[in-house]
């Protein structure tokens, strides 16, 4: 008999298949002396090293390409004679094989870090190899993404961004995480990669091989489903795929109300794919990639070239560029303070840029020069604006330096409450729902223990969004949403019903949102929005919108 586990779905997709559980990181081995002979410990370690090296080589052979090179290099690390000597010396000193591997690999990793460069970057690979050898010695699964040899549903406590980014989409049918919320990095990356996912499924006590249906549209994982349930899920997946492959048209409601659908981009490299998927422009271009790997701010000329490439890809279309959003989880040595006890509430966003105004002036100058070289419709906006004065400051400076259209991001409750006054000073507003949820609910978006508070469906957040939309309408200024909320198809309809003019999202979400909007008129959208905002919590708001649909 089937059972159901509730979580938070990412997107509308569904998939079914056998579970493979991601093993947790291993506890460090005890440093107690071994009760076995040194020869016994050395033989066990040698067998484990050989098995791990063979496994890595086999995985590399199956993966092919650059992944094969990486895995073969890891296999060679496992069998490095220097490491064998270090491990043997510790075993001769009385250590267990597990602790000898743990300590010797850590020592060697430190040596590589001190050398730096390419070898320094391999230190992290050594830690992974050591974990695999120790897991083999213990007879337990190695930590990390499993490789059962067939397509599977990945179940994990949570996924590191690197794990999510490197998932093999030919093997991973869907992802279920026990922790995480709709604005967690796992959810964001899953949406960007088009992976079917349910996050925050706290009661997901699943075992390898169990068959499940992961139904993101219903926020549900069905355990041990019947044949009829599997057939129904497969039919819905086929119907969805057909809708996604329908001819691309501009975003609009069923009654023809235009809702331009834009793309969120982090570099100019994603422009071609976004256009192919039907992006009508860019609603959020993050410029942090130009700054985060540098010890000093890039020159005006260097920035100008990057912006010119982006704008050149969207000739005649709107491109909204967010100036540098640094601070909090994105500190920069040349811009942000490193002694703030609570940087999320410190000098970040427009506050940091105003403190180091020359960096902001250079960026706006580079954008103005790039704008003059292309035919795109460039808009610029400031992050983390909290006051009317900040909105006026940024808009005045942008126009002084030659930008035609300047706006602000609404990411904190104060800017939503002041939206009518703020929009009197600036040209537009774009709502960043990820941070707006975090600051409205006082819930760290990366903290699993408060994931239940991180939903953009919360009526408190929806009412703030309506205040911003009303502020835009009062001033005749456009209001968009460029957070993860816009990528949730049903919520996208609600946002339009609240008065939002444009929606910007990961390009992979465009097809689902486009198809969902076509199901409703503006009157329908307003009815869904009214039902959702009248609810008392996020789950009730989503349920109310579904009932009103």
From TrEMBL:
Matches recorded under Gene3D superfamilies: Phosphoenolpyruvate-binding domains, Phosphohistidine domain, PtsI, HPr-binding domain
Gene Ontology BP annotations: phosphoenolpyruvate-dependent sugar phosphotransferase system
Record-linked InterPro entries: PEP-util_enz_mobile_dom (IPR008279), PEP-utilizing_PTS_enzyme (IPR050499), PEP_util_AS (IPR018274), PEP_util_C (IPR000121), Phosphohistidine_dom_sf (IPR036637), PTS_EI (IPR024692), PTS_EI-like (IPR006318), PTS_EIN (IPR008731)
The protein's Enzyme Commission number: 2.7.3.9
Enzyme class: transferase
Function, in words: General (non sugar-specific) component of the phosphoenolpyruvate-dependent sugar phosphotransferase system (sugar PTS). This major carbohydrate active-transport system catalyzes the phosphorylation of incoming sugar substrates concomitantly with their translocation across the cell membrane. Enzyme I transfers the phosphoryl group from phosphoenolpyruvate (PEP) to the phosphoryl carrier protein (HPr).
Alphabetical list of PANTHER family matching this protein: PHOSPHOENOLPYRUVATE-PROTEIN PHOSPHOTRANSFERASE
NCBIfam families: PTS_I_fam
Protein name per UniProt: Phosphoenolpyruvate-protein phosphotransferase
Organism: Microbacterium faecale
